[in-house]
Amino acid sequence: MIQTRVYDLVLAAKMTITPLQ
């Protein structure tokens, strides 16, 4: 499903934006 792909992309972007975690 595309929704899963989008969610994964958002998660990856969040991790890239906040490398503090």
The biggest beta sheet reads: none
The number of E-state strands comes to 0
| Integer average pLDDT | 83
Proportion of beta-strand residues: under 5%
Regions with pLDDT < 50 over 5+ consecutive residues? none
Shape: rod-shaped
Query: What letter string, H or E per element, gives the SSE order?
Result: H
Characterization of this structure:
This protein has 21 residues and is mainly alpha-helical. Helix content is 76%, strand content 0%. It is built from one helix and no strands. The longest helix is centred in the middle third of the chain and has 16 residues, at 2-17. It starts with a helix and ends with a helix. The relative contact order is 0.17. The model has no long low-confidence stretch (mean pLDDT 83).
Summarize the structure.
Helix content is 76%, strand content 0%. It has one helix and no strands.
Provide key terms for this protein:
21 residues, mainly alpha, 76% helix, rod-shaped
Sequence-ordered SSE layout with sheet pairings:
Elements: H1 2-17
